[in-house]
Amino acid sequence: MTKRIPLAVGIRQAISADISRMLDVLAACKLDLERKGIYQWTDEYPNAAYFEDKLAQSQLYVLEGEEGVAGAFVLDEYQIPEWSQATWVYEEGRYLVLHALFVHPEAQGGGMGKKVLNFCEETARAGDYDGLRFDVFTENETALAFYVKQGYSHRGDIILPFKPEGHQRYCCFEKIVSARLG
Questions:
Q1: What is the pTM of this model?
Q2: Cβ-count burial of 137 within 10 angstroms (0-12 exposed, 13-18 middle, 19+ buried)?
Q3: CA distances (Å), 1 to each of 4, 36, 106, in order?
Q4: pLDDT tens for residues 35-69?
Q5: Which residue among 63, 90, 120, 146 has the highest number of C-beta atoms inside a 10 angstrom radius?
Q6: 120 φ, ψ to 5°?
């Protein structure tokens, strides 16, 4: 029987001391996904340098459980050029973008993902953003179903040529949170 990590007690901005534990959690997530035949992350992304850069820009967050860091994510405005292939509801506007969300496999299914999305949506509203966007590897069926269940709309598939061959198709998702657009 798999030991469950206690539910996250909060989301907070990451600090330098979190990066080592984040990398351990990320390694567990990558291994778990690879066992399922899902190869969405490489040694190039996400990695320590990426997290350190996002930490310096105050864009890196951790999910903190009773026993410490149980996951992490990045929240910024950067939309990769390949996203122009998607069919967004509105081309104009201000959007927050969720990147590199991961939750320790032993903590998945405990509500952390929903907590992250709620946090991101609240942050978007408070910052006068129009919505939240992100992409998801097409073969990660659990994640795809989760985001649809949370009210996110699939806006098309894109090809990410920098991902491993055979693992380059990603689904773009979006949720409008602004009253002026929604």
A1: 0.91
A2: buried
A3: 9, 18, 11
A4: 998 888 888 899 999 999 999 999 999 999 877 89
A5: 63
A6: -65, -45
List the domain range (segments joined by +) for residue 145: 8-176
Q: What is the pLDDT of residues 134-151, one digit of tens each?
A: 999 999 999 999 999 999
Give the chain's domain count.
Answer: 1
